[in-house]
Amino acid sequence: MSDWGDEDYRSGGLEQPSASQETADDPDLYFGSVDEFVREYLRNVYRRRVDGRHRCWAGRWWEYDEAVIRLEALWRSWENLRLDAATGMSVWWRDHADHHMAVLMDPEGPFASATEGEENLSKRGEPLPYVAPPDGMFPDVRVSL
């Protein structure tokens, strides 16, 4: 968890909730990290032909700050919306996945430089390219809860 917003707690006299308070009422996460989410779910359900010209994707997505932030947002929103059996996944696809994936895969987007090499290309119907990040880069947050 980042320290973003910590200053709000300190300056406003609010007590920051402890990790046990934060997770006591939260449902268990299905995926333990953004890497697990991308590897096991997103790349397999969001199959697109990636040719580096019409759509771009980097197998080493974790080397692009904007991509990590957007993919983290996709993962966290998926974790929340999966609990809504009525419309959660529809909302996730419409409001989150389709928006962020269009930005990520745009030829002018964050992966614009990832246009060559087998690790950045996929054929129609194949999972999005994936290269494992360095060990420890995305620890399983379920372990620390």
In angstroms, what is the radius of gyration? Answer: 17 Å
DSSP summary: helix tally: 6
Helix/strand-derived class? mainly alpha
pLDDT under 50 segments (min length 5)? 1-24
Percent of residues in beta strands: under 5%
Largest beta sheet, briefly? none
Number of strands: 0
Elements, N to C (H/E):
HHHHHH
What gross morphology would you assign? globular
What's the end-to-end separation, in Å? 11 Å
Mean residue pLDDT: 85
Fraction in helix: 40-55%
Please provide a written account of the structure:
- By secondary structure, this protein is mostly helical.
- Helix content is 43%, strand content 0%.
- The protein contains six helices and no strands.
- The radius of gyration is 17 Å and the shape is globular.
- The N and C termini lie close together (11 Å).
Topology (elements, then pairings):
Elements: H1 6-11, H2 19-24, H3 34-45, H4 65-81, H5 88-105, H6 141-144
Describe the structure concisely for a colleague:
The chain is mostly helical and 145 residues long.
Key terms:
145 residues, mainly alpha, 6 helices, disordered N terminus
